[in-house]
Write a structure and sequence with these properties.
This protein is α/β, with parallel strands linked by helices and about 300 residues long. It folds into 2 domains: about 5-215, P-loop containing nucleotide triphosphate hydrolases (Rossmann fold, 3-Layer(aba) Sandwich); about 225-275. It has 11 helices and 14 strands. The chain has helices at about 40-50, 70-75, 90-100, 110-120, 135-150, 165-180, 195-200, 220-225, 240-245, 280-285, 290-295, and strands at about 5-10, 15-25, 30-35, 55-60, 65, 75-80, 155-160, 185-190, 205-210, 210-215, 230-235, 250-255, 255-265, 270-275. A 6-stranded mixed beta sheet has the order 6-7-8-3-9-10, with helices on both faces. It has a 4-stranded antiparallel beta sheet with strand order 2-1-4-5. The longest helix has 14 residues, at about 110-120. It is globular and about 75 Å long. The structure holds adenosine-5'-diphosphate.
């Protein structure tokens, strides 16, 4: 395992318990951390990149202990924060050169080579002399990846990578990440968008209210949700009663009745047909922490 997280807790000074006994084994490759806003994703990311300390628990990264070997851990880390910014007075190549210097590349010729190579691989070489703040949204994201990867890190942490990008740019961004990261590297993608995970990650975890509610592959998650998604036809007059009882994920109107997609262990009193779940359904299934309350109503 590349990263082992054991019994991790984070309690903020105001008493908020943001991470509750988190245990995760993260192998190399792309790992997706999925969860709604407020689940604790950023808290976990900031602890992983050594920007914040956990209240208790342990993290081991490529054999280094996060607390005892802080410096070594930092040297193998690359981080693309959610609100990635750069200084307006830097040209694209200058910014990358600055990031390389910060990461300890002191030899100028070696650094220039690394910067040129990185600009090429993220497709920014042509615009290297443009001021970084004049780049398009997608280009800025690519520059963000470039600064995170310039020192060839083992672990790359990307917080909500696709916020603010259009669908085409999102796909390009994900593909670029998987292309430019080296062998035996681990990329942790934190997101609240199910599609970001399903197309790129072999392993994933679901975080909900500071707890891991699922760990495995996207396929495993689908399997666990199989038999929990239903297609039910409900008459107009039964609509309110039904939707008060069961969590509905899609509503399609028909003449005098409704076709509903419902997530539940079972449906009582209505004709229900099992529906093949997609990852969105599976996500709702795991997030629906009050599922028992819904079905036992
Ligand atoms: P996510 O990234 O999944 O949206 P966060 O890690 O940002 O979640 O936040 C998890 C929870 O911790 C939220 O309820 C948030 O309000 C709370 N939180 C985050 N930062 C602080 C802080 N500095 N002090 C107190 N509570 C915080």
């Amino acid at each position: 395992m590349s990263i082992v997280i054991k019994n991790l807790n984070k309690i903020y000074p105001d008493g908020h318990h943001a991470l509750k006994n988190v245990n995760l084994n993260i192998p190399s490759g792309m790992f997706g951390l999925l969860g709604p806003n407020g689940a604790g994703k950023s808290t976990l990311m900031r602890i992983l990149v050594a920007q914040m300390e956990a209240t208790s628990g342990e993290i081991e990264m490529y054999g280094y202990n996060m607390l005892k070997d802080r410096k070594a851990v930092r040297s193998i880390l690359g981080y693309l924060p959610q609100d990635f910014r750069f200084f307006a007075q830097y040209k694209t190549w200058e910014f990358l050169d600055y990031a390389a210097r910060l990461s300890g590349m002191t030899q100028t010729s070696r650094r220039r080579d690394a910067v040129d190579k990185m600009l090429e691989s993220v497709g920014l070489y042509e615009v290297r002399n443009r001021y970084a703040n004049k780049l398009s949204g997608g280009m800025k994201r690519r520059l963000g990846i470039a600064q995170a990867l310039i020192h060839d890190p083992k672990v790359i942490v990307v917080d909500e990578p696709t916020t603010g990008l259009d669908p085409e740019e999102r796909i390009r961004f994900r593909n670029l990440l998987s292309k430019v990261s080296g062998q035996d590297t681990t990329i942790i993608l934190s997101t609240h968008i199910v599609g970001d995970i399903s197309s790129t990650c072999n392993h994933m975890a679901l975080l909900n209210k500071g707890e891991v509610s699922f760990y495995g592959s996207p396929q495993d998650m689908l399997v666990r949700a199989t038999g929990k998604v239903w297609r039910v036809m409900v008459k107009d007059e039964d609509f309110v009663q039904f939707t008060n009882k069961y969590p509905v994920v899609a509503t399609i109107p028909h003449e005098g009745e409704w076709e509903l997609q419902v997530i539940a262990d079972q449906i009582e009193g209505y004709d229900a047909e099992a529906y093949t779940p997609n990852l969105e359904h599976a996500y709702v299934y795991f997030m629906e922490s009050q599922l028992d309350n819904w079905t036992n109503d």
